[in-house]
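G., the chain you wanted modeled:
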Amino acid sequence: MSKIIKPYKDSELGKKEQVAQMFDNISGNYDGLNRVISLGIDVKWRKKVVEIVGKNNPKQILDIATGTGDLALMMSSLNPDKIIGLDISAGMLDVGKQKIAKANLSDKIEMMVGDSEEMPFADNTFDAITVSFGVRNFANLEKGITEIARVLKPTGVLVILETSNPTKFPFKQGYKLYTNLFLPIVGKLFSKDKVAYSYLSESANSFPFGKAFNNILQKNGFTHTKHNPVTFGVATIYTARK
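Predicted structure as tokens:
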């Protein structure tokens, strides 16, 4: 299990509350800064997630840690009956609601403040559940995954997109320089929250990935787990079933 990394080391708040506070703080410029930091490649990764989810022909989709709704908006192309975007940060959701309204999709996509570890849904509700760059922010990773398994239908699919660490030279060394130096510097220059992007890089570097994360999924209710590294291993797409 990875160690617990919190955004604000001097704060007495728990990780969950700190993560909500951090994303509220950076919600206004998160989308633009995210495009710069990822060089736009994150859009390509999300398209792969949508493609995988689409194979299940889902009618009810839950997007956990939906943030400003990028993935939820992209999955509307699958023509489901309903997409629920769940996030702990009201600030991020407010930005997402504006984007959804602009796209005339407010009847299709519902944005909801909620805790991934205690979700207000019945067992076996969703045909597909997605999490993009969110599981590393769970306060209790195993509890969150168990809760995902609870609300996913037996025939449903879980697709997770998360940062990972390249293992081969020179990408391993280059990625460490990028996350430890470039990402925090850009974050501090353009974000009013000076520690947010240091936390995001630190949490990315320490989070279990590949087989290690597959093992966590398997311990907490999932089978048929697969992982597919993308862009030299700087991110990984996981698929799993109950």
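The two ends are 21 Å apart (CA to CA).

Shout if anything looks off.
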